[in-house]
Write a structure and sequence with these properties.
mainly alpha, 17 helices
Length: 348
């Protein structure tokens, strides 16, 4: 006896299957316990799908530059605080508790080589659904992600000694949780991406730490660092670094430059209008030039995004009004008054 296949019968079968699936789900019969693990074919399919997705989206959703090898200390410090417990690290096993997740986080020293820099950038920035891998917490902080890509790329060849040199807190420091990146002297361990805090305004630093902790100020690195600090610790950190010799308000070396005069024709105010004694803006004269230039470029945003879709806070708007050809000169001009403090010393 032959069963005649008709459109009506196909629709009926499909409806029956959908009803069955919904019934099983409604009855709570689908096991969601992490302790049950995945079937091997399920595990393979999910990883295969994730890798294909990362390959496709990273080709169209990543900026031109996706890796920066010049800021390993801040990336390593963030990895130790936010990633090590799940992924492990050279000489450091992952937490057994976190490895009980389904799926458990991979050992990046073994798997980083499976991905290109663009794919790593996309995964770190966007995270992975249905796993413990979150999206990057700091929005519009591609600079932090570029440094993390460089750090992850180094993991396969990094020794435990090298990892400890990058991440071990300086226990002899008054504030070991801060000195790991910013140094005992507040000079940022001579790292181009870490600002000089020595001599910075204490009230400004306290406001910044509170903003990071609340999520109002974007930086996955600093948000993670500030999350564990109470107000007394924030006050202690701000007052400690403010008392150290370093930054100080002073005139720009070239009084004709943007720092002192601005660009009235571009509605660009002088830096000195806000970054001056008695103002709420931070001290920037004497700051590391490469840090200032990088932050200004970060505020400007990606060239592929139109201005209307970019942040409209004051510094973002100001940064976009600075001519690109003048940006590095402006940073150097601001750094010059106390350029001897901008070099800093490399901490052990």
């Amino acid at each position: 006896m032959m069963v005649r296949i008709t459109i009506g019968r196909i629709v009926l079968v499909l409806c029956a299957l959908v009803t069955l699936v919904l019934g099983v789900a409604a009855a709570g019969l689908v096991p969601i316990a992490a302790s049950s693990g995945h079937w091997k074919i399920t595990d393979w399919f999910l990883h295969w799908t994730m890798q294909n997705s990362a390959r496709t989206y990273s080709a169209v959703q990543t900026p031109k530059q996706v890796r920066d090898d010049n800021g390993l200390i801040s990336a390593a410090g963030h990895f130790r605080q936010a990633c090590q417990s799940c992924h492990g690290a050279p000489g450091e096993a992952p937490s057994p508790v976190m490895q009980a997740a389904t799926p458990p986080a991979p050992d990046l020293a073994k798997t980083a080589g499976h991905y290109t820099d663009r794919e790593l950038f996309w995964i770190i920035r966007h995270g992975v659904k249905f796993t413990g891998m979150p999206a990057w917490a700091g929005t519009n902080r591609n600079d932090e992600i570029r440094r993390m890509v460089a750090f992850v790329r180094r993991l396969p060849t990094m020794t435990p000694q090298q990892y400890r040199a990058l991440t071990q807190p300086i226990t002899s420091a008054p504030l070991p949780q801060c000195a790991g990146c910013h140094g005992v002297d507040g000079k940022g361990r001579a790292q181009p991406d870490i600002p000089i805090l020595a001599g910075q305004d204490a009230a400004y630093m306290l406001r910044a730490l509170k903003a990071y902790k609340s999520g109002k100020r974007a930086s996955a690195v600093m948000q993670t660092a500030a999350a564990s600090l109470d107000e007394a610790q924030m006050n202690a950190a701000a007052n400690y670094y403010a008392r150290l010799p370093g930054l100080s308000h002073g005139p720009a070396t070239d009084l004709r430059a943007i720092a002192a005069k601005g660009l009235p024709e571009a509605q660009l105010p002088a830096c000195a209008q806000c970054h001056a004694p008695g103002k709420t803006a931070p001290v920037i004269t004497g700051q590391r030039a490469i840090y200032l230039a990088e932050r200004l470029r970060q505020w400007r945003g990606e060239d592929t995004v139109i201005d209307a879709h970019k942040p409209q806070d004051p510094m973002a708007v100001i940064a976009r009004r600075i001519p690109e050809e003048a940006l590095d000169d402006l940073a150097e001009n601001l750094a010059t008054p106390t350029s001897q403090t901008a070099t800093g010393t490399t901490m052990p």
